[in-house]
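The following block was generated as part of the benchmark described in Methods. Ligand: heme C.
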Amino acid sequence: MGRVVLILFLGLQCIVAQKSLVPKRCTVCHEKSAPPLSLVYRRYLMLYSSKARIKQEMVDFLSAPSKEKSAMPEGMKNRFNPQNHPAFAPSIAKESVDKLIAKEDLIPRIVVPKD
Ligand code: HEC
C-alpha cells in the first residue's frame, strides 16, 4: 500500500515539475557555466526568508543587474561579475522567477511515506 502511494505521489510530482519548468533562457547558463539555480535559491532563502521578498529581490536584480543588487557572497561576485548578468524585461523576469521558485519549492515537499 505504501509503495502504491509513493508511486502515485512521485507521478504527481513529475506532472507539477513539468508545468513549472524553468525556461531555457535561464537554464542555458544555469545548468552549465553559471551557479545552479538551486544554490542561488538557497542563498536567497537564507537572506530573505519570505517567498514574496525572494521574488521581489530576484526580479529587481534581473531587470537591471548590478554588483550592489547581487545577493551572492563576495567570492562569487568577484568570480562571476553579477553586473554582466543578462538583463530581462520585468515581465519575463517575473515569469521566470515564478517558475524557478515553484520548482525549487518542490524539493522539500518530497517525503517518503512510511508503511
Ligand atoms: C548568460 C548566462 C546566464 C543566463 C542566460 C542567466 N543567468 Fe542567472 N546567473 C548567471 C551567472 C554567471 C550568475 C552568477 C553571477 C551573479 O551573482 O549574478 C547568475 C546569477 C543569478 C542569480 C543571482 C543573482 C545575484 O547575484 O544575486 C539569479 C537570481 C539568477 N541568476 C537568475 C536567473 C534567471 C531567472 C535567468 C533566466 C531569466 C537567468 N538567471 C539567466 C548567468 C546567467
